[in-house]
Each structure stands twice: as C-alpha cells, then as structure tokens.
Amino acid sequence: MRHFDFSPLYRSTVGFDRLFSMLDNANGDVPSYPPYNIERTGENAYRITMAVAGFSEKDLSLEAREGTLLIKGERAPEGEDREVLYRGIASRAFERRFQLADFVEVKGASLENGLLHIDLEREIPDAMKPRKIEIAAAGADARQIEGEVN
C-alpha cells in the first residue's frame, strides 16, 4: 500500500485544497492510471496534465458539472488481425474525477504529444473580493452634530 504526503502542496496551491484533503482521507489505493500532474501556472491559474498516450481527441471526453471535473478515456478495440507480443503502453479505459474548489472553472483543454492539458482558472466574484475601506482623518472633514440638551 502506498501513501502520498500532499502536505507540501497545501502551501503552494489555492484552488485544490479540498482535492488534496480528499486524497489524504481516501481509503484504499489512489488510482494511478493515467498519471497526471497538477501545476499552478499563475496566481489564480492551474493546469492538469494527464498522460494519455495512444488516445486521440475522439477517445477522450471532459465534463465539468457542479464542482466536479470528469475525464473519461475509452479506445475502440484494436483489429483482431494484430498479435501484440508485449503490451507496455496501457490503453485501458479510464475515468478520473477531480473536485474543483469554489469558483474554479475549466478554461480549455488541448491534446499535445500524448499529454492532455486542462487549463483552469479561479475567478472570485467582485462581491467576495476583499476591498479597502478608506479611513477619514479626524478634523479634516469631520462634521459635528449640534443639538439641544434637556
């Protein structure tokens, strides 16, 4: 049984905190096929790179729904006229799910040299962004309210 320590990644990522917690708490083995990387490419930008050698665009499907990114790969069966003597390149079907953090959206995907790149961006709504509140200097624009005291 393998255990991966994701604690160093907590310090360097913003959008995938829940994902790493879920992987830490998962019972059993973490699926290892296909292998993937999660990179931080900017302050609010991320990229998932997945090794999908042998799969074409038509063999892959991506779906983002309700905070979950689902990636499926399924190749059509190879012709029976071929006899494979050694199979070192995996071509089995797979399904990989990623829980996306709040406000993380998929911006695009590309397949290049056997690697599937999925670009993500965290877009926090303006209403939730921190804002600076000006403090007025006392005496400069201070107004005094005068009233009768009984």
TrEMBL record:
Query: One Pfam match, by short name?
Result: HSP20
Which Gene3D superfamilies does this UniProt record tie to the protein? 2.60.40.790
Signal sequence coordinates: none
Q: Which PANTHER family match?
A: PTHR47062, SMALL HEAT SHOCK PROTEIN IBPA
Entry keyword annotation includes Cell inner membrane: no
Q: So what family is this one in?
A: Belongs to the small heat shock protein (HSP20) family.
| Protein name per the record | Hsp20 family protein
**SUPFAM superfamilies membership:** HSP20-like chaperones
Name the CDD domains for this protein: ACD_IbpA-B_like
Q: Where is the SHSP domain?
A: 27-138
Keyword line: Stress response
